[in-house]
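note to self: dont lose this again. the chain is below, predicted strucutre after it. 115 aa total, dont forget to put it in the shared folder this time
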Amino acid sequence: QVQLVESGGGLVQPGGSLRLSCAASGFAFSRYRMNWYRQAPGKERELVASINSGGGMTNYADSVTGRFTISRDYVKNTVYLQMNSLKPEDTAVYYCNVQIRGDYWGQGTQVTVSS
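---
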């Protein structure tokens, strides 16, 4: 079955960096677009970044453009989210997502940006 396991979250000061990882299994990883979403307390889940199956096309929310980079490793079946210049408003639970005749989600990883 499809499994997505996120890791890499934590507490970081404003201006700092984190790299999130999402290990994928149970499906043909190279055939699907992969997405990162986030959900802050009291807010709806929002799409942060996505990468197409071939890895050559990426999209970002306006709020993270220029600061976040999504990438994928086809050997490790893992998708990454490099987050730089973090701001307090980036605080959220970050989720990995794939859409295969429906949505699959990981368990999420907490990112807290605070001094």
